[in-house]
Amino acid sequence: MVYSGILFGLAHLTTNIFVRGLDIGPGVFMLVGQIIAGWIFGIIYMKTRSLLPSFVAHYVTDFRLGSIIARLFL
User: Fold this and answer.
1) Contacts of 65 (CB under 8 A, 6+ apart)
2) CB of 27 within 8 A of CB of 13?
3) 52 vs 48, 58, 59, CA distance in Å?
4) Cα–Cα distance between 21 and 58 in angstroms, integer?
5) End-to-end distance of the chain based on CA atoms, in angstroms?
6) Which of 2, 42, 47, 61 lies 20 to 30 angstroms, CA to CA, from 32?
7) What are phi and psi of 23, to 5 degrees?
8) Do 36 and 42 form a contact (C-beta atoms < 8 A)?
């Protein structure tokens, strides 16, 4: 599970830098949070033995964080 969280974070690193246009510093800062999120999603999967709750948690996290960031910066 440790490796899957790290892979989850690394998969998002390219999005942080190339899609969102972040510099490497903020991109790596976000990487830490995304690794932790990957671990949390892994724990959810291990407890439920279903990917659906992890998908829902990921969607809700993206939606909430996206709306907060939009309010702060846009």
Assistant:
1) none
2) yes
3) 9, 10, 10
4) 21
5) 36
6) 47
7) -70, 170
8) no
Q: Which pTM value belongs to this model? A: 0.75
Per DSSP, the three-state class of 19 is helix
Domains of the chain, by residue range, sit at: 2-73
Measure the CA–CA gap between 26 and 59, rounded to whole angstroms: 22
Distance from C-alpha of 1 to C-alpha of 5, rounded to nearest angstrom: 6
Tokens of 1: 């599970």
Cα–Cα distance for residue pair 42/16, rounded to 1 Å:
21
Q: What angle do CA 8, 12, 65 make, to 5 degrees?
A: 100
| Residue that is written with structure tokens 């969607």 in the block | 59
